[in-house]
């Protein structure tokens, strides 16, 4: 008799008590979102929306390290290099899913522990309830791989306090539990040890407001709040070049902090930095669906460029952390170059019915 290995499903669905539960199930890959996971999650949510026995939907993740470290970058990189249309299909389906979560007719509760970045944020932060444990590490690191803070980052980042969202987008800085709660990424903080009990109570009660009020904690102020004045002063500038100039000129107690932020920015793709700043400026004035259409325009152009593939090579594949960006300097990225990423497409993202792919 021969033994055959059966692969674990990448995403799991179950009904427990009053809840429908989604479990991201790729712990060895830090629950990175694959095309399969996105394509399965959406129709299940549609089915639960019309199921009277499901009063709320809960999303969680297997393992202790990560809720989700983002999209499956290797998969996307391979598609893009091969000019496979699957890459654009993935982003179209992902952005429609993000929109459906934002508009979902029932409570949508994300139980978030460990790493949450990029695409992981996209299936969490647009829900009605975002519950974070003490081990949370949130970031939008896309400019470091020649990409941009998508999955609704155009909408939710500019709506964080002051210029915190712009700072996160340009530096790829990280937030812990307290700052995520203060900044609006999370709606509730709980003790990590209580996360399983929170899940059980949500399934039993079917009332997330009542349940989460019982478990919610008030963590001490996080480090971001202490530098908010510097963030607002420096990242309010209209251009990336001026932001860097203000960081370089910072003196006093936070001068060393400012120098670190400038150094992080200078390691990123110049094109990505300028795209991200424009996102923050445009997104602050746009509704959610327009923000998602903007992102689809950008990702379509990025897929035809070079920096994303070079960034993934340097950071994830070869791991030499020495990307050769094209163009290599901020000065070489013109306003017209940036405008081209935001120009309307012949086939815009259709969000007229986000309940359908």
TrEMBL record:
Keyword field contains Hydrolase: yes
GO MF annotation list: 3-hydroxyisobutyryl-CoA hydrolase activity
BP-aspect Gene Ontology terms: L-valine catabolic process
Ranges where the Enoyl-CoA hydratase/isomerase domain occurs: 20-342
EC number: 3.1.2.4
One Pfam family hit: ECH_2
Keywords: Hydrolase
Reactions the enzyme catalyzes: 3-hydroxy-2-methylpropanoyl-CoA + H2O = 3-hydroxy-2-methylpropanoate + CoA + H(+)
NCBIfam families: PRK05617.1
Protein name, entry field: 3-hydroxyisobutyryl-CoA hydrolase
Organism field: Aquamicrobium aerolatum DSM 21857
């Amino acid at each position: 008799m021969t033994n055959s290995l059966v692969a674990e499903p990448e995403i799991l669905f179950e009904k427990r008590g009053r809840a429908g539960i989604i479990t991201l199930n790729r712990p060895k890959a830090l629950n990175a979102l694959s095309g399969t996971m996105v394509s399965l999650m959406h129709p299940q949510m549609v089915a639960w929306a019309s199921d009277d026995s499901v009063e709320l939907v809960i999303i969680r993740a297997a393992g202790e390290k990560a809720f989700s470290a983002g999209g499956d970058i290797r998969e996307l990189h391979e598609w893009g290099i091969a000019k496979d249309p699957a890459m654009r299909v993935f982003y179209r389906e992902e952005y429609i899913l993000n929109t459906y979560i934002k508009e979902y007719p029932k409570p949508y509760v994300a139980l978030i522990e460990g790493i949450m970045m990029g695409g992981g944020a996209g299936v969490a932060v647009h829900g009605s309830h975002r519950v974070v444990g003490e081990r949370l590490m949130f970031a939008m690191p896309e400019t470091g791989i020649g990409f941009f803070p998508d999955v609704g980052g155009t909408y939710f980042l500019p709506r964080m306090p002051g210029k915190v969202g712009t700072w996160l987008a340009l530096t790829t800085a990280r937030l812990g539990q307290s700052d995520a709660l203060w900044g609006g990424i999370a709606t509730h903080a709980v003790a990590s040890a209580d996360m399983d009990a929170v899940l059980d109570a949500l399934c039993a009660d079917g009332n997330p407001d009542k349940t989460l009020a019982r478990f919610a904690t008030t963590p001490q102020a996080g480090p971001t709040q202490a530098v908010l004045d510097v963030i607002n002063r420096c990242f309010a500038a209209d251009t990336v070049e001026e932001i860097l100039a203000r960081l370089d000129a910072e003196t006093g107690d936070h001068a060393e902090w400012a120098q670190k932020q400038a150094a992080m920015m200078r390691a990123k793709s110049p094109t990505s930095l300028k795209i991200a700043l424009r996102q923050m400026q445009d997104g602050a004035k746009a509704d959610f669906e327009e923000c998602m259409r903007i992102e689809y325009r950008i990702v379509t152009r990025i897929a035809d460029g070079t920096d994303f593939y070079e960034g993934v090579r340097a950071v994830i594949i070869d791991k030499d952390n020495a990307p050769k960006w094209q163009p290599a300097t901020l000065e070489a990225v013109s306003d017209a170059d940036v405008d081209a990423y935001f120009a309307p497409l012949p086939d815009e993202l259709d969000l007229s019915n986000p309940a359908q792919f």
